[in-house]
Amino acid sequence: MSGHSKWATIHRKKGELDAARGKVFQKLARELYVAAKQGTPDPDSNPNLRMVVEKARSANMPKDNIQKAIDKAKGASDNENYESIRYEGYGPSGVAFMVDCLTDNRNRTASQVRACFTKRGGNLGTDGSVSYLFERRGVIVIPSSYDEEQIMLTALENGAIDIVNEDDSYVIYTNDSDLLSVKKALEEIGVKEFLTSEITYVANNEISLDDEGKQKVLSLVDQLEELDDVQNVYYNLKED
């Protein structure tokens, strides 16, 4: 299985998180707020919120920050609404992109996202133009210091669909509905360090480019992720 969530990318994004942790937490707080406001503020009875909480924990967001974002939704005005929007298109060298946003101003967000693509030699497409190239998956990444046979057996018995040993880590892919059960099973056998644990989109096939081509694509990724309204950027570039 391939996709932008392979450890090469996760490692890159962890570096970015260390350099701009406040911005990452700000986006996660918005995502927590929206998930809590659209359903119940109790993660145990709100699957969407539970998944966002899992994502926030994976990013080392402090427990107090997570709870504050959820509590904010409890007393929020009905006039304070965010809209989920997905933009699809192609970046440099034909690399497919999906850009998920949360916004209170659709026109502003559309203009900013379109400008990023245009400046970097890409173009936006219509709904569904590239989404068929991706699959929704759970991704768990743990250090490879744990016993490989035990990790593989436990993960597969609890719903994992693929396990890859790469970059001194195990990358475990699951169906989105099985992410938490696989993680719980790993915790029960003594796994304590999770480098990544989230629902994401994984590309069915990746595009290989030379170093110059990669940098052009990653430059677009960075520019998109700088936008306040952008929550997640998915693409089918092969990074390793």
Quick rundown:
The chain has eight helices and eight strands. It is an alpha+beta fold.
Question: Would you give an account of this structure?
Answer:
The chain is of the alpha+beta class. The chain folds into three domains: 7-74, Orthogonal Bundle (Arc Repressor Mutant, subunit A), CATH 1.10.10.200; 83-132 and 205-235, YebC, transcriptional regulation domain (Alpha-Beta Plaits, 2-Layer Sandwich); 135-203, 2-Layer Sandwich (Alpha-Beta Plaits), CATH 3.30.70.980. It has eight helices and eight strands. The protein has helices at residues 7-19, 21-38, 47-58, 63-74, 106-119, 148-157, 179-188, 211-226; strands at 83-90, 96-103, 123-124, 134-143, 160-166, 169-175, 196-203, 230-235. The strands form two sheets. It has a four-stranded antiparallel sheet with strand order 3-1-2-8. Strands 5-6-4-7 form a four-stranded antiparallel sheet. Helix 2 (21-38) runs parallel beside helix 4. The radius of gyration is 18 Å and the shape is globular.
